[in-house]
């Protein structure tokens, strides 16, 4: 393997490869077999590990989405409860005002009747 060349990757290149393939590759090897060069990753990278990492990332994303959905639903329910409470309070205030007006009208009518007698 006298024709083997190892290329060290920059942190940016490593991150891009890991994001795309799920494999952790610190370097790339180029070997020559006859007239055809062959590229390979170091033997330490494992497809099983990459699959586990990808599955873990999907599960984490799914958990974040589920949590986000629960928070959004909770916020909608809280807003709905506040609106309902506000509507009940407004209705109660209208009823109280109406009752005060009715009582005031009865008192005025009673006073007019008493005055006319």
Percent range for helical residues?
55-70%
Strand content: 5-15%
SSE pattern:
EHEEH
User: Which sheet architecture does the biggest sheet show?
Assistant: 3 strands, antiparallel
Strand pairing plus helix content: what structural class? alpha+beta
Average pLDDT metric: 80
Terminal CA distance reads 126 Å
Oligomeric state of the chains? Answer: single chain
DSSP helical segment count: 2
- Gyration radius (Cα, Å) is 38 Å
**Shape by Cα distribution:** rod-shaped
**Total domain count:** 2
Spatial order of strands in the largest sheet: 1-2-3
What is the element layout, followed by pairings?
Blueprint: E1 5-8, H1 11-21, E2 27-33, E3 36-40, H2 47-116
Antiparallel strand pairs: 1-2, 2-3
């Amino acid at each position: 393997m006298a024709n083997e060349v190892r290329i060290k990757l920059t942190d940016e290149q490593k991150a891009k490869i890991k994001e795309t393939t799920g494999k952790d590759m610190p370097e790339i090897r180029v070997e020559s077999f006859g007239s055809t060069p062959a590229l390979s990753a170091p033997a330490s990278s494992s497809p099983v590990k990459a699959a586990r990492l990808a599955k873990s990332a999907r599960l984490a994303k799914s958990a974040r989405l589920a949590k986000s959905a629960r928070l959004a639903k909770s916020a909608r329910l809280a807003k709905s409860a506040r609106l309902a409470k506000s509507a009940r309070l407004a209705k109660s205030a209208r009823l109280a005002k109406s009752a005060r007006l009715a009582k005031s009208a009865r008192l005025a009518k009673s006073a007019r009747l008493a005055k006319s007698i």
